[in-house]
Amino acid sequence: MSAKEYRTASSARGGLLTVANVPNIAFGDRVHIRDQQGNTRNGQVIRSSDEEVLIQVFEGTSELDLESTWVRFLDEPVEIALSPEILGRIFNGLGEPRDYRPPIVSSLRRSISAAAFNPAARTYPKEFIQTGISTIDGLNSLVRGQKLPIFSASGLPHNRLAAQIVRQAKLPDDDSRFSVVFAAMGVSYADARFFQEEFASSGVLGNVVMFVNMADDPPVERLSLPRMALTAAEYLAFDLDRHVLVVMTDMTHYAEALREVATAKGDVPARKGYPGYLYSDLAEIYERSGRIKDRHGSITLVPVLSMPSDDITHPIPDLTGYITEGQIVLSRELHNQGIYPPVHISPSLSRLMKDGIGKDFTREDHPHVSNQLYALYARALETRNLASIIGADELSTRDRRYLEFADAFENRFVRQSEDEDRSIEETLNLAWDLLSTFPPQALTRVNETEIAKYHRQSV
Amino acid sequence: MNTTSNRKGKIKDINGPIVTIELPGVQNGEQVRIGSLGLYGEVISLEGNEALAQIYESTEMVRPGESVEGLGHPLSVELGPGLIGGIFDGVQRPLEAMFLKAGDQIPRGLSPLPLDRDKVWHFVPSENLEPNMPIINGAVLGRVQETETIEHRILVPPNISGELIELAPEGDYHLEESIGQVRDQQGEIHHLKLYHRWPVRRPRPYQSRDNGIEPLITGQRILDTFFPLLKGSKCAVPGPFGAGKTVVQHQVARWANADIVIYVGCGERGNELVDVLDSFPKLKDPYTGRPLMDRTLLIANTSNMPVVAREASIYVGITIAEYYRDQGYDVVMLADSTSRWAEALREVSGRLGQMPVEEGYPAYLASRLAAFYERAGRVDTMDCGKGSVTLIGAVSPPGGDFSEPVTSHTKEIIQTFWALSKELADARHYPAIDWVDSFSADVSTAAEWWHENIDREWEKRRSQALGMLARDAELSRIVNLVGPEALSSAQRWVLEGAALIKEGVLQQSALDPVDTFSSPEKQFMLLDLILSVYDAGADLIELGVPVQELSEMSVLARLRRCKELYDSNQIDQLNAFREEALNDFKEIHSEYAQRGEQPA
User: Fold this and answer.
1) In which domain, by residue range, is A280 found?
2) CB of A429 closer than 8 Å to CB of B545
3) Distance CA B18, CA B55 (A)
4) Are residues A235 and A316 in the same domain?
5) Full-model pTM
């Protein structure tokens, strides 16, 4: 390898190191930096001219001095070694093992910044994934190849929900090979531990690849971690024909790391100090999910992010929502009422649901039932507001029925226990139990045939 | 243009997609290829010996010192038969061909020609042309049947005019074969082919501008009836995520009565384009009965594709739109989303260290937006009568805040504004177009068309419905403060009427096979029917009929479902139902009228 080594560092600040007089270094090149103690740090070239080179140092530049720092340019992009052996392993954001086992030895190495999928190569995701969770399956269905994030906030049980999805997700009548890629960025020790135990106890650990960056690990490493994870996922899906579920938590920490580096580079900030390219950067990650023509595998992506101050208009959830195919939004209000999973259905949405449900996929009444529940719940929430002003006693009988519906919906349909795995049939039947508290003529979103077949008054 | 030999230079600095190059004699806007991979880019500024270029592809592993080649022309598109039905990337590379050639991912430096050179087209020369005649730019040399529905008119390129020396006879030709020769005023002879190239940032010429006179019919009730858009006009569709921008755009692409639809997916989801690619060939154009793909063209720069090509993509789209306009067609171009385009502008300007003004956007955002939208219009073409480009741009305001720079600047430029609302979408009221925030500046022009072709009552009924919706908003506020008991019967009937309009007219399901498209006749009939029922009910309330009795009439539930029970060809059945419904009201009327006449 024709690696070049230099000792001409000219400035160091934050995670950035400048090296002077190093001609013809490739943009994006991988770098090893050796400090005075002889420890090696990792970096990547983020700007290269014929006079100087700007390096992003993953471990940060603290305790580096400019005189004795050696910089070695490896003449290769940041890569990950891939083989079936990655299953069951734990890596850091640079693809190095963090489970005290030897590194992966493989001749197959891939750059983590893959070229974009050609839209003409994609197939439209259509296969319904049953998660066993009514608010998702019934109202915001997930399909294979979709990217559906969980919008959460501090203190809400997003990790438990993500773990439940991992445990229960399956295609009805299908037992093809599946794998899980788990990417943790800036998580606490407890959270990382929780997932590890979850995977172990549900017996999937051998099918999981974990990429973990803890809250006290270098933030810059968070930038490469999701790309490592997705390169691994692409390998599992499109080389090994597996159906891969990628869970990423917490995307907010990722975006914060990006802001940190962008600020150090002097990029012009757009909103809340985040760089203008946050959208494109997030899209590079999220758009790596999907299905590809003539390939058996798929990548389904469930990123978890916490909304700073519960604010859904914050740039991170906002830009995510513009890229992903819907979102599952958790609500502090439901959580405080002790309802698990606290999925707030009104702002939740699955964009790919329409083509993955109904006749031939789930059940013919599914699209209309979902629509009807949404409409009734929206009306019921309005009624609840009204009741809080004028008092429930002042409501008409018709309005009181809505009020009762809201309670029943939250307590019977939304609420379920962490080990309760409801089939789509069960979810839809439960929905009809609730719909049947209304007379058939009040249900305008379901059609007459469906009412005749499923409405309890008709049966 | 291509005769000058390509000049060579070298790379000085790489900063993501912005590369500093040293290339003697380079022009601003010129296309360049850089590095050993030959990545395409465009020069955006000159400074002394150095030039800055924005590169359309990832610059990973490119190094200073590598070579640069100037191509001698600005970013241009190929215009000729074979565009329709295709999918191209932001710089007009054919994605289907690239998939066949290079597999799942888009490799760098690959640049197959946009139009298929092997394909043979049957060319029929124009009858009125003869050698030695003077010929102007934009004149029709002949015709090629591009798809079953689209006759492609082969035009003299906009920068060539003079004397026609030779015109090929009818026959089958490849794109590169000469089909005619023109000698220009300088005596230079140009060989014309079935296609020509045109720089995307320069609007194509036409004879003169004209006013829009005819509404674009989209089959969507809230759009056509309430916020009409004229052919040749410009429109924005802003909305927060999840409000249904994409569905609105897809519905317009499906059902609009345009000749050609160009859909530019600019920084949006890959799967949405796949949805169009999958579904459009199976869907029928409601006006010609042919597969929708026969009139559709896709430009795709998905959100994960390089940002610089995103900036170019909408210019590529609008240039192709203008080209079909010049052939005398009504073209609709949908840009989803212009916010991503503006962000691409911001990203490049940020890398150039330009002074940001609002939210990081450069000062020229407003003028660029205006110049882009101004390329829409209805014109007298050089040789094909009237043609139009209707421009519909989606806007994705951060946090759904319409006061942000892109939305607010766009709002100043456009004629029609279809504002999407999060609240409506959350209640699954689709399309979630807010009737308070939306507007159309072309209602009176559209009214002339509706009055002439559909019904003279159109404008009146439209205003009545909007008036009721406004009353409804007002009364709902009172209800939310003091409860429904505080309202009079007449006021409660207004709420009921507004609910009927919302459910029976405004809400329209894109997924329901009947409801997805409403002809103008059906749109007016539904509106008129609901308002007639409301009027009949209002009369009864005057007679003292309790509002409760009216609300529980079974005919109202049917009324809400009319939109999906009767399709656009079942106007007679709809009329029959109308008789039935109004009869029910008449019966109550006579019942109460009799009661009123009887002595107490």
Assistant:
1) 80-353
2) no
3) 6
4) yes
5) 0.93
